[in-house]
């Protein structure tokens, strides 16, 4: 086991990997609650019954898709990266595809399935890996730093330290709110442990914050330990309904837009996450991502699995950086996260203690660690500084990893050509320029 996961080469051990995998799980466990709420449209009353997906079935599908993706990523690609249905993509699925376009959720699942199958083909052909390795190092560093700022913003927002403000868009929240104070306590505690060099400081910070929260009734006590596993029957296999019974419903411009959107966002969200996590863990080799093809294949298979089970696109999670910060370096950590996802099917009541105020300090601290890649960017060369800056700033401001990448990548060929460095731009980057331009025009 140690030899397969290269523990000695990576300077890790079972303890670090288990703590890292557990930290990643705790940082992303919210998806087991949020994804069913989002896809079921339970917050939108008055809709016809056929528009609502079964919440319990979505929960089970979410856990299974996350487990399959994480286990495959850990065993096949041997990266400490966990997978789960992506935030943003689930909202697009529910509120745009189903609610706005009026496409039945069964057909929307077909769209996810189609995008996943296309991704498998692209991954096996090596096209996805080639594209990722064609991205210049400056932009790879920018992607890592941008994601760091993005997840820090997520942590600040989820904990209500930063709130919406009609006058200036965002502003400081109510620091007297007990729940906000709990996050601040967890943040200070985690910072102290990280400065002291305590291994697993992020994990211990989350654990102690949760205990303090329960002691002061700020975090709900679990109502039980073991619960029954909801049936997946209402959604399982629904992605095939339109293919078998009504294939003409798939021959529309709207359905094509849906599939292309799932394709685009998942591709570049995954690429960005793989690059940033590998950078943080020190796994990049000469600016390239080893075993990228296997990592992308794991991501693709997880998407297909999730679509068949009954959930939106499954993708690599930026919260994996929390596990890396806690010490994870190998795929064993992802295996740990995958096993915990399976166990969560039976221990769902316990997950109630993992609130956003408990996980927020971890996300904020991880952002601090990830922006260190800024030092690798040549800021004195304006032609590379501009696209890198736009990648970094656009991610948190547009609330999208893929959009941030798109904006920066649109500027890169332009600035390099004007600077007379046209031969240094990989031909694939020109192709991506056209793809991103079409993305903004049509999608």
UniProtKB/TrEMBL annotation:
Cited Pfam families: Xan_ur_permease
Record's protein name: NCS2 family permease
InterPro entries: Azg-like, Azg-like_bact_archaea, NCS2
Family: Belongs to the nucleobase:cation symporter-2 (NCS2) (TC 2.A.40) family. Azg-like subfamily.
Cellular location(s): Cell membrane
Membrane disposition: Multi-pass membrane protein
GO cellular component, one term: plasma membrane
Segments passing through the bilayer: 20-38, 58-76, 83-101, 107-127, 139-156, 176-195, 202-221, 255-275, 330-351, 358-377, 389-412, 424-442
Keywords noted in UniProt: Cell membrane, Membrane, Transmembrane, Transmembrane helix, Transport
Source lineage: Bacteria, Bacillati, Bacillota, Bacilli, Bacillales
Source species: Psychrobacillus glaciei
GO molecular function, one term: purine nucleobase transmembrane transporter activity
């Amino acid at each position: 086991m140690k030899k397969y996961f290269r523990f000695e080469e990576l300077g890790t051990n079972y303890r670090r990997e288990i703590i890292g995998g557990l930290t990643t799980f705790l940082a992303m466990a919210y998806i087991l609650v949020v994804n069913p709420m989002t896809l079921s449209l339970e917050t939108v009353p008055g809709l016809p019954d056929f528009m609502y997906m079964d919440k319990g079935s979505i929960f089970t599908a979410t856990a299974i898709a996350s487990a399959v993706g994480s286990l495959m990523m850990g065993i096949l690609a041997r990266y400490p990266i966990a997978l789960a249905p992506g935030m943003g993509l689930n909202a697009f699925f529910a509120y745009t595809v189903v609610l706005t376009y009026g496409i039945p959720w069964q057909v929307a699942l077909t769209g996810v399935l189609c995008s996943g199958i296309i991704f498998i083909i692209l991954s096996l052909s090596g096209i996805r890996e080639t594209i990722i390795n064609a991205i210049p190092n400056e932009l790879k560093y920018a992607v890592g730093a941008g994601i760091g700022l993005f997840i820090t913003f997520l942590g600040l927002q989820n904990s209500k330290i930063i709130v919406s403000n009609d006058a200036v868009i965002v502003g400081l929240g109510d620091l007297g709110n007990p729940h906000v104070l709990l996050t601040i306590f967890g943040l200070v505690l985690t910072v102290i442990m990280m400065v002291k060099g305590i291994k697993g400081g992020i994990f211990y910070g989350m654990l102690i914050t949760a205990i303090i929260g329960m002691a002061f009734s700020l975090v709900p006590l679990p109502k039980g330990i073991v619960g029954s596993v909801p049936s997946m029957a209402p959604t399982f296999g629904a992605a095939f309904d339109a293919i078998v019974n009504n294939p003409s419903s798939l021959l529309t411009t709207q359905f094509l837009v849906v599939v292309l959107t799932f394709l685009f966002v998942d591709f570049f969200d995954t690429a960005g996450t793989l690059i940033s996590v590998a950078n943080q863990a020190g796994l990049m080799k000469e600016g390239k991502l080893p075993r990228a093809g296997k990592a992308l294949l794991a991501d693709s298979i997880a998407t297909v699995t999730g679509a068949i089970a009954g959930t939106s696109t499954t993708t690599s999670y930026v919260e994996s950086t929390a596990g890396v910060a806690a010490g994870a370096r190998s795929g064993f950590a992802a295996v740990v996260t995958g096993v915990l996802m399976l166990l969560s099917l039976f221990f769902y009541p316990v997950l109630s203690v993992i609130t956003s105020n408990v996980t927020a300090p971890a996300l904020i601290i991880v952002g601090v660690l990830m922006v260190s890649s800024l030092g690798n960017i040549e800021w004195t060369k304006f032609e590379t500084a501009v696209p890198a800056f736009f990648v970094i700033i656009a991610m948190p401001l547009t609330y999208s990893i893929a959009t941030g990448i798109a904006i920066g990548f649109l500027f890169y060929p332009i600035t390099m050509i004007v600077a007379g460095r046209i031969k240094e731009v990989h031909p694939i980057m020109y192709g991506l320029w056209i793809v991103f331009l079409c993305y903004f025009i049509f999608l």
